[in-house]
Amino acid sequence: MDGHIFIGGGGEGYGTKQGLNLEYANRHGLVAGATGTGKTVTLQIMAEGFSAAGVPVFLSDVKGDLSGLAAAGSEGFKLHEAFTSRAQKIGFDDYSYEKFPVLFWDLFGDQGHPVRTTVSEMGPLLLSRLMDLSEAQEGILNIAFRVADEEGMALLDLKDLQALLVWVGENRADLGLRYGNISTASIGAIQRRLLVLDNQGGTKLFGEPALELSDMMRTDVDGRGMISILAADKLMGSPRLYATFLLWLLSELFEELPEVGDPEKPKLVFFFDEAHLLFDGAPKALVDKVEQVARLIRSKGVGVYFVTQNPADVPDDILGQLGNRVQHALRAFTAKDRKELRMAAETYRENPRFDTEDAIREVGVGEAVTSFLEKKGVPGVVERTLIRPPSSQLGPLEVSERKAVINASPIAEKYETIQDRESAYEILTRRAAEAAKAAEEAEAEEEELEAAEREFRAGRRYSGTRVARSTSKPVSRSTRRSSKDETLGSALGRAVIKELGGTTGRRIVRGILGGLFKSR
Ligand SMILES: Nc1ncnc2c1ncn2[C@@H]1O[C@H](COP(=O)(O)OP(=O)(O)OP(=O)(O)O)[C@@H](O)[C@H]1O
Ligand SMILES: [Mg+2]
User: Fold this and answer.
1) Confidence (pTM)
2) CA separation (Å) from 75 to 48, 83, 85, 400, 492?
3) Which of 226, 222, 271, 249 is closest to 410 using CA atoms?
4) CB-based pocket (< 6 A), ligand 1
5) What is the DSSP secondary structure assignment for residue 153, as one 8-state letter?
6) What are the backbone angles phi and psi of residue 49, rounded to the nearest 5°?
């Protein structure tokens, strides 16, 4: 199995080793099957195999049962016998229990290192998707990003975005001249969506220090790929946040990593669990982008493996790109099930020993219909494969064990403390304070002047000596009027227009598939 990851045994009596060729592991894959058929264990053994081959792995842990990768399996485990006899059956002679190097990540920062990105890095397209904005609202978000960019205001966290939107609202008359109509109703709607996102825990996702991708692409001292496990149990409560975050991560990988052509093994393997969430109700434009990213990210050495119950959940264009497949059992209760099963079967290269459709229905738990890319990237003939047992612990770590792994991590402490450097919120707050102060001063001046004027008139009437004193501060009426009229909004507005005039159309609408939008 040199240059391959051992997956299990196929052929007569399951005695023929089946492996995933590392050379083609960046040509993506699919792990599918009904509930309870063995998908999670397949994910686990694939992660083990990649790690052992020195390939870093990213995966999301939807049910919390993959943390066991960080501990070795044990002879005392109830399935020890089952595992060893399975290993024997498939000729897995050097089967042994082992633990793997794991990094735990958590958007909420509880069960792992916090994963953060900035609002600018997420970009308007993904944020719109995240907040489920209408086209008109997305348009306004685009304007807000553009103005922030031209103004040199960093958008780091949600409060930056919130402050920016308030400001865009205040200056919508001026900005409207430049960018077209900006309705307060739309701004209000975006602000309300921001609140929802905030309630879902979105606040935790945005800020600095932002994730450095290199931290997800590490190998340990023994050269084994580190397995990044994203806690997704709580995250699944906000499916849109979950799917958008993973999509953002993919787009960042796509943008940041250099081209490597066809490497001898992937730079990173990315498992997208509950992949249907990415496509449920997604607009065609987004699906098209996912399809493009999948196609192009391959040359960056990243293999993407979609994990889902039913391959029919994955759009055809994307399914067609998933070269390495582990199809666990599918049920065929309804006419629709049977149709989908037939279509799933048709995508494999037939094996004369069995009917693919029957096999997909019949395979047992921990068994699958498999096909991996072979020489020249041609799909191998379909096999019925008994998947190998895991070397790491089946089932989750204890809370204390998990804590210990987190504390011993090479990046412990790096992301724990939020750094809030100056960004849009601070800049706008300061500008507003300055404008308010200027307005206040103008008002005070006005009052002083009016008092002087009263005094002057009174003086003229009653006393000559007061006149000289009251005219000691001559201010013309026209100057007074202009400073009085200077409201907060127009002061800011004028300042912006002035500054906008000076900047060229520099524009970094970054983030989601930004590379695609920018250059292709
Ligand atoms: N490769 C394997 N070797 C040994 N046992 C396995 C293997 N795959 C699955 N099993 C057994 O089957 C059980 C169910 O598998 P698993 O949890 O992977 O299913 P699943 O498809 O992920 O289910 P769900 O949809 O509920 O998440 C495991 O707990 C284990 O006992
Ligand atoms: Mg599972």
Assistant:
1) 0.83
2) 19, 10, 13, 22, 70
3) 226
4) 33, 35-41, 63, 79, 83, 86, 365-366, 387, 389, 394
5) -
6) -65, -45
